[in-house]
Design a protein that fits this description.
Blueprint: H1 2-16, E1 22-30, E2 35-43, H2 44-54, H3 65-77, E3 79-83, E4 86-87, E5 91-98, E6 101-109, E7 116-121, E8 132-138, E9 144-148, E10 154-158
Parallel strand pairs: 1-8
Antiparallel strand pairs: 1-2, 2-6, 3-4, 3-7, 5-6, 7-10, 8-9
């Protein structure tokens, strides 16, 4: 009997376990090319569910290039960089499937005299309020990590030279 109660508790905990929704973005200052390279990584499972809600039920990341293009456009419209209140015009470079991940790539020329950066990343947060988007900023001093939740739309970082 005791074993049955423990087993029921374990099963109920597993059923109520909450799957964390998250994405990781790398913002890399590439001094060699003079660009800021942005690499968004989404779990393919999450991205597949998202496109069915965002686009339509027949959306298919694995089989349709048009779905991959649409999701990449969606992500690029939900990520923004600005400095001194001025938006940086990001270019969508492309996207790719890589194992269990879906990647979206953007870039922009590094502005001169850049000392601080403001960021917004709210991809998928309108679908899933518990979606957390983590952004790592590399190539300008120590790596800086920002965590974006629906309550935290914009964040600012100071950059080293």
């Amino acid at each position: 009997m005791r074993l049955l109660i423990i087993l029921c508790c374990v099963i109920s905990l597993q059923l109520s376990a909450h799957e964390m929704k998250s994405a990781v973005t790398k913002v890399l200052f590439n001094q060699r090319t003079g660009t800021i390279e942005i690499m968004h990584r989404f779990y393919l499972h999450d991205a597949e569910h998202a496109v069915k809600k965002l686009l339509d039920k027949s959306a298919d990341l694995l089989a349709k290039q048009s779905t991959r293009d649409s999701f990449a456009l969606y992500v690029s419209s939900h990520f923004q960089l600005r400095t001194s209140g001025q938006d940086l015009k990001l270019t969508l470079v492309g996207s790719e499937l890589d194992g269990r991940f879906f990647w979206v790539y953007q870039e922009v020329t590094i502005p001169q005299q850049l000392t601080q950066l403001e960021l917004r990343h709210d991809s998928l947060q309108s679908l899933w309020p518990d979606q957390v988007n983590v952004v790592n900023i590399e190539g300008r001093g120590k790596v800086k990590t920002l965590k974006f939740t629906p309550e935290q739309q914009w964040q600012q970082v100071q950059l080293s030279k």
